[in-house]
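User: Please predict the structure of the protein below. I'd like the answer in structure-token form so I can feed it into my own downstream comparison script.

Assistant: Understood. Taking the following sequence of 392 residues as input:
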Amino acid sequence: MKQFLLIITISISSTFLHGQIISRIDGSQISLDSLDEKIEHLMKVANVSGVAVSVLNDNKPVFSKTYGLANVQENIPLQPNKIMYGASLAKMVFAYIVMQLVQEKVIDLDKPLVDYLEKPLPEYIIKGWNRGYKDLKNDFRYKKITARMCLDHTTGFPNWRWFEADKKLKFKFDPGTRYNYSGEGLYLLQFIIEHITGKDYETLSQERVFKPLGMINTSQIWQPRFDANICYGHNSKGEPYELMKWKEASAGGSMSTTLADFTKFYTALINHVGLSKKKFNEMTSVQVRIRSKSQFGPLASVDGPDNEDIELGYGLGVGIFKTPYGKAFFKEGHDDGWGHYSVCFLGKKTAIIVMTNNDNGESIFKELLAYAIGDTFTPWRWENYIPYHIKR
């Protein structure tokens, strides 16, 4: 793996340099002060508890700051060291690890995953999760699934089986034929990788990402030392949700992290640290076009021309779209009380990370992205990032 020294020596915590500027993708510029004021305004008008933002120019952080409260009821500030639930931002970390293993020829993206097993997939018992694959015993389409299908969300699985009426795992369509966001697909790939390497996913994450990058406040499972710096997710009224302290690692979204730590990871990723440029380019290239009218809900199965202008698609662990300023890749995270988004315009070497701990958080994304980096291309309707001033 490449050296991590450059990344580790970047100071992330509360990077806010008065009088300096941020370059947007269209070449225009804004001051750091004005972005600071914009974020505070958006939080106020949209009633958002806490926001954490990093902006990158020339693939390096130029602005990184937290705002608001980590705990509204106790009036505890959201600081850069507060532990936030990463939600599905974790999937991008998993894809990065998988691509390292592909680079090292530990796993092949297009080899059926069952070829790495000694017995049929439905016969394996997954300890702790009480999930397994017995539901697929009489549906042999599971034999077609590859790592590529897991990473580009074309396995045919639902997002999670517990969203199904009968709580069972089943195919919604044939593997490889359509995009359908699926945590189940990533968890299957996690199981295969753990089987191949003989290591649990938390160990792999620490060895390959968190420790090398100095991400001391990040883990796939909750650490007791995190208790001193908890950030809660809140509903739209500012009431905290119960905090889930993950005891088992899940590639689909168990990661706890901080703005400072996740910015270190993102900086490493876009600078090809740990991945060759070839593998990074494959990760951020379209594997499947997306034509659904929405990512989730009933419209996820209805196609339309809504995002043809940006050629919306999915790569390996990240979404992709095209703009007059070149290609961009993105990854979001969502759960009750949490709304996160990251997007990088590759040719412009400009990116932003936004993390919020409130159900209202996503309502400021459209306006914040446009102001901070000039991103008016993110498919906000498809993502259901309905602006605060538009009645739902």
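That's the full token string. The chain has a mean pLDDT of 93.
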